User: What shape does this take?
Amino acid sequence: MPPKKKDTGNPQRINISTGKNKKRKNAQVFPDNLNANSLPEKRPDSRVSPSNTMSSQPQPGLFQPMNMSSMGNMSNYQTQPGAFYTPQQMNIPHNTQYVNASPQFQSSAPQVNSTYNDTFQKTVLDQLMSLDNRLNKLDSIEKQLSTLTTKLGNMDTRVTTLECKVKDVDTRVKEVEVSRAFDSQTCEDLKSKNIELDKALQTERAKVAELASELKTLNSVSDDIEDLRARSMRCNLLFHGFPEEKSHEARKSEHCAKLVLDYLNDKLEIARAHENIKIERAHRLGAKYDFFANRDQWLLC
Assistant: This one.
């Protein structure tokens, strides 16, 4: 704090800041009876207004506008619990005139002091309001960040749940793939067995076709078998009771097979005997008994 200026006895002298004072940036000059002890103390639970402190102090005899750089030593102001700030520095011109509060100027000093206090209070209040607005915006941003944090936590939970579901789906897909591979192997086995069955079926069909051809062959030779059987039994067919021709010439021209077929067709009523029955040969037998010379000779077919 600079020392007090002595009065030289000239009450009409007006002290004007020198060029040296102009070069000093942010010079801290206080009135005679304003010291650091008169500044507001730190109060963590209340807000202290510099305007109230200035209004409660006695009016100095030598008045000088206060530079806001001197407010750096003042206490921090608390707007709400846990939030402190310091007033911002104000830029005030350094070429301010110093007025000697002599008895001749005592009437104008209170008016200047009151005007300065009003301006100072208005400036500080404007800055405090600006800081309050900024703090309110910070509170809003903090609430938004808290909401975003909550939403991110919910998203993390949902993502974790989705990851678990995806793992379950992967496990099921792997099981389905294993089952599908087993089914594919089973299908391959069935295909191979089906091919073998087709081959066996084709073989059986070939055998059936061969048997059918053989059956046809057997059916075709059945008539030959009957003919052979008739040939083997030709000596067993004896017809008798046919009258014999009297003349020798007539007996030579006699057709014994025709006689038998006519007999079969007319007497025995065998239909189409001439077409169905084939007689290889037919002839008459000689006398079987010597004592019956006139007995009809037998026909052997």
